[in-house]
Amino acid sequence: MKNIILILMLFGCNTVFAQDIKADLKLVEAFSTDIRNPEKKLENIVQSYLCKLDDATFAGVLFQLKSLRTAIEGKELIVQTFSQIPENESNISFGAEESVYRLLANQKHACFFLVKDGIITSFATMTKGKGGHRVFLKLCGK
């Protein structure tokens, strides 16, 4: 009986985890689609998908989004979960890989995303050190 209860509890946890990944994946896909759409105002996209930002960070994020919009314009977009990213390309130094997603534009890397609690907390990374590991520049304190 204890084994059955344990199995049911584990199955329930996996189901919730899978639902979170699916919801986060849809969030990143919607964000990417909105960024590519020139009719969508970048300010509205920030308010819809990101945490509340101070003025200086907001201005920097708008600049990054303009660059991203240009980079993915007219290209086929694919969002990958961390587990779908080839090992030689998943050089992210972060402890919660289930929260990491990657955007491909015409099969080429466009950016990584970090999602927490239904909010994109970062879409900017920088390379750290000689090993080429990437670290997220977090926009939100969450």
How are the elements arranged and paired?
Blueprint: H1 2-36, H2 42-49, H3 55-72, E1 77-81, E2 100-105, E3 108-116, E4 119-122, E5 125-128, E6 133-136
Antiparallel strand pairs: 1-2, 2-3, 3-4, 5-6
Explain what this protein looks like in three dimensions.
The chain is α+β, with helices and mostly antiparallel strands and 142 residues long. It has one domain (2-136). Helices cover 43% and strands 23% of the residues. It contains 3 helices and 6 strands; from the N terminus they run H-H-H-E-E-E-E-E-E. A 4-stranded antiparallel sheet has the order 1-2-3-4. Strands 5-6 form a two-stranded antiparallel sheet. Strand 3 (108-116) and strand 4 form a beta hairpin. It is globular. The protein starts with a helix and ends in a 6-residue tail after the last strand. Residues 2-18 have low confidence and may be disordered.
Properties at a glance:
single chain; alpha+beta; about 25% strand; two-stranded antiparallel sheet; about 140 residues; 3 helices
Bulk shape? globular
The number of E-state strands comes to 6
Number of helices: 3
Q: Strand share of the residues?
A: 15-25%
Distance between the termini: 40 Å
How many structural domains can be distinguished in the coordinates?
A: 1
Helix content: 40-55%
Short description:
The chain has one domain (2-136). The chain contains 3 helices and 6 strands, in the order H-H-H-E-E-E-E-E-E. It has helices at residues 2-36, 42-49, 55-72; strands spanning 77-81, 100-105, 108-116, 119-122, 125-128, 133-136.
